[in-house]
Each structure stands twice: as structure tokens, then as C-alpha cells.
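Task 17 of the worksheet. Students: predict the tertiary structure of the chain below and write it out as C-alpha cells. Keep your answer in the requested format; marks are given for formatting as well as content.
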Amino acid sequence: MKNKKIMLGLFSLLLAFILAACGGNDKTPKADTDSDAHENMDMNEEESDNKEDMDHSGMQHSGSGEVPEGLAEAENPTYPIGSKVTMHADHMPGMNGAEATISGAFTTTVYSVTYTPTTGGEPVENHKWVIHEEIENAGDEAYKPGDEVVLNADHMEGMEGAKATIDSAKQTTVYMVDFTDTKTGEKVTNHKWVTEDELSTVE
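Model answer:
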């Protein structure tokens, strides 16, 4: 009788250990799953960043400072040459929030455009910005959304000579700016273009 009770007790104890071990095993895969989820999220974020960089790989950050023929200097710009401003534009990584110095101010009509690069590939949608004087055979009249034009700008590879559609148009002051890329630390000079409503005074 005593032996039966001892055996029963040992069996119960053994069963308890087995159940505890099974419960522990249940937790381990869950932890691994959580770890995998975090790794996947990190990879997705990295892929997203890489994609953003690829989208702007052909962007010409710095410019020569030369402007198209016929472009009029702004007579009384809100931000005169030499002014320090903060940019609120995200045309490319490293731009939004960067402090910039105005290197040129001009009055013109500015357009966002969708175009197919001459180098091939998918259309570039809503590119900002192209000015009136950077459009082939531009007359005195501003273009309207939906108009088809040919670009003379070389802000990106495959842009010059490309056929484009005007997405938006507005008469405003556009600025050339010098700034330091907030992502790479690269100094960018004579970047074209930033509109007045994408700038604010440095506080």
C-alpha cells in the first residue's frame, strides 16, 4: 500500500514536471515569433529607406548657379539673398527641416510635372519643381494643369528633353538655396527650386 502511494506521488510529480516543461516550450516559440516580427519590421523599414534613396538617386543636389534665359530676379522677395531659412520641403531625403541660405530669388510660374524619363523606366509623378523658363518653347502665357510640354530642365537624369504633363501651376517667388543634407552631411549649393511657401524664417 505504501509502495503504491509512493509510486502515485512520484508519478504525479513527474507529470507536473512534464506539464511545466511543455508550458515552457510553448513560450519559447512565441518569443522567437516576436523576435522574427521585429526583424521583419526592421527589414521593411530598411527596404523603405532604400527605396526612398533609389527614387532620388538621379537627383542633382547642387547646381552651377546659372539660371535659364529670361528668368526675372524678384524685386522685393520675402527672403532676400543671404537670408537664413528653414525648409519645409521633402523633394528629396535630407531636405525637410534643414537650415538653408538663400542664393537666388526669382519671380516666375512654377510647375509640378509628371514625365517619362528619356533614359527609360516608370513615369516620375508630381516632380517638384520646374519653372516656366525650363520648358521648351515656352511663350508668355503660363501653362495649365493637363497641358503637355517638353522639359529643358536637368534636375534629374533623363529629365532634359522628356515629355511631361503639367500637374499644377502657380505664380510665385522661387528660390535657389545652399544647405547641408540632414541625412548625409553633404553640402548642397545652388539647389533649384524651393517655393516661398516651403520656407520659414529661422527662429
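Marker's comment: Residues 21 and 167 are 64 Å apart (CA to CA). The longest strand covers residues 163-180.
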